[in-house]
Amino acid sequence: MDVGGASPTILIFSDSADGASAAVRHAEAYGGRVAATLPLTGSLDRLDPHLPVDLVIIDVSQDHGEPLDELLRRVDRAARHRHFSSVVVAAPDVLDIVLARVGHEDVDLVVGRDSRALEEVIADRLSTEGNVLQGFRPNATPGTSPLPAMPPLPDTLTRGLGLPLREEREAYRLDAGDEPEAVERMMLDAATIRDMIRARRMREHLFGHGLFADPAWDILLDLTAARLEGRPVAVSSLCIAAAVPATTALRWIKQLTDAGLLHRVADPEDGRRVFIELTDRAARAMGEYFDAVPWPRRG
Predict the structure, then answer these.
(1) In terms of domains, do 221 and 119 share one?
(2) What angle do the packed helices 215-229 and 246-258 form, to 10 degrees?
């Protein structure tokens, strides 16, 4: 793009008039120029990497099968080759399908047309230096403010997992020869962990939602119980377990994955879905935690 003052070029794909309208409104509010608003199917030729596109916004409310899969694969591939960035606004019912097709950090996900989250990611994509929009900084809409930055994981947590500190941490992988450590060895059972989760929800009911928000711990608790139960956990289910808005939960899942605590696993029975699991090192840490901290066992 011309960084001397031209607005970034944006393509919008949507399967509903409301979704397209919201995307246009937010894109133009932050200085974008919407080149076209297109249906989700039958318009893949507009994603030619040689065409001048800076940002693609996809709003999807229902499953369109292979055409949707191919559109998502293309935006993920474009992000990996730095052709353009993308924002995908997904209804909760199609979240797992979307996440099975996209995973690059230059593809932002917003769940359920969360207006504030959509506003934030578009503003971020249109102002971040160092990506395909390098050098462009739009003026924010008066009266709006970005969501607060996601707090980093504490060093105490990464130290306990044998990970380097934040500033030098890379995605953790088990070294060759490491023995898998399972939560099955700990003294606590899944039912007791579920009791703990219910107690946390009761606390929110009595004192108000958000006062005790701790999505990282809710995610780890749910996955620990699921591992003990031998039950796979889809991303959409984990977002519910996090007890925060789904878009916020996705960010926490990503941060925990980047820290080596979680990993994605393909559903062996459905190639259009992925599961999230604890890594073996994270499972060992959870087991050690529950063995060290007194908690009433079910008897």
Answers:
(1) no
(2) 70
| Residue 237, domain member (yes or no) | yes
Structure tokens at 280: 């073996």
Entry pTM: 0.72
| Residue whose pair of structure tokens reads 């047309």 in the numeric block | 113
**Cα separation of the two ends of the chain:** 66
201 alpha carbon, distance to own chain's centre: 23
Angle at 19 between CA 17 and CA 24, to 5 degrees: 95
Domain of residue 283, residue span: 155-292
pLDDT tens profile 15-54: 999 999 999 999 999 889 999 999 988 888 888 777 788 8
Closest listed residue to residue 217, CA positions, set 293, 128, 129: 293
Q: In terms of Cα–Cα distance, which of 223, 226, 204 is closest to 213?
A: 204
The answer to whether 46 and 36 have CB atoms below 8 angstroms apart is yes
**How far, in Å, are 92, 163, 173, 264 from residue 228 at the CA level?**
26, 24, 22, 18
Query: Rounded CA gap, 109 and 87, in Å?
Result: 6
Strand partners, 37: 12
Which tens digits make up the pLDDT trace of 268-295?
888 888 899 999 999 999 988 888 877 6
Which residues, in sequence order, are bridge partners of residue 57? 12, 87
Q: What does 254-287 look like in DSSP terms, one character per residue?
A: HHHHHTTSEEEEE-TT-TT-EEEEE-HHHHHHHH
Distance CA 96, CA 115 (A): 20
| Residue corresponding to tokens 């739009």 | 138
Alpha-carbon torsion (222, 249, 131, 61), positive or negative: positive
Domain annotation covers residue 140: no
